[in-house]
């Protein structure tokens, strides 16, 4: 029996390696659907109802209507189809608000790219009797806010406090015992395009706001994945 030549052995070995690589590529190819690539979605916050296996109704932020720093009405319909970053503050605050404003300003700059065109920032005052549209406009200018993306909202105390408590599960109210007379949360809230709450972040901590920026990227990717699944 003739033994294969050295060249023949090399060709056989190389052919085997090429075939192995091809099989690995085909096995892991998403187009074939042999292996499903998993993406970790952000959690949902708030009450939820399990209707059936794989069918859950998640809490949605209730409708609202407020006035922005330019005197324009902003409603849930105005911001429909946008990802929201929400917080509560007041312009005369001397405790956590300056830090929150600085962190939101840096987040706005960090996301100043067409890829984040669907992201809006909504800052609600808890001191509406003082924080008129004119006062909010001056405050926005001090923060160098791009008010096409970062809106400062006022309204009645009742509507603002109710939206904070029932809409975002945040403390937001008048309190004579609190510093400067008002109590509000330091948290930034991430809301997806379907008005589901997807994250809470400490707006006084740079590391937490950096995590928020990363989660916004994840949420945008999630939106693309879900849109592709709806089309398929």
Polypeptide structure, described:
This protein has 5 helices and 11 strands. The chain has 232 residues and is of the alpha+beta class. It has 2 domains: 1-37; 56-231, Glutaredoxin (3-Layer(aba) Sandwich). The chain has a 5-stranded mixed β-sheet. A two-stranded antiparallel sheet has the order 1-2. A two-stranded antiparallel sheet has the order 3-4. Helix 2 packs across helix 5. The termini are far apart.
Q: What would a concise description of this structure say?
A:
With 232 residues, the chain is an alpha+beta fold. The chain is 36% helix and 22% strand. It folds into two domains: 1-37; 56-231, Glutaredoxin, CATH 3.40.30.10.
Q: SSE layout and pairings?
A:
Blueprint: H1 6-28, E1 48-52, E2 55-58, E3 65-67, E4 73-75, E5 83-89, H2 97-110, E6 119-125, H3 133-142, E7 150-153, H4 157-167, E8 172-174, E9 182-184, E10 187-191, E11 197-202, H5 206-231
Parallel strand pairs: 5-6, 6-7
Antiparallel strand pairs: 1-2, 3-4, 5-10, 8-9, 10-11
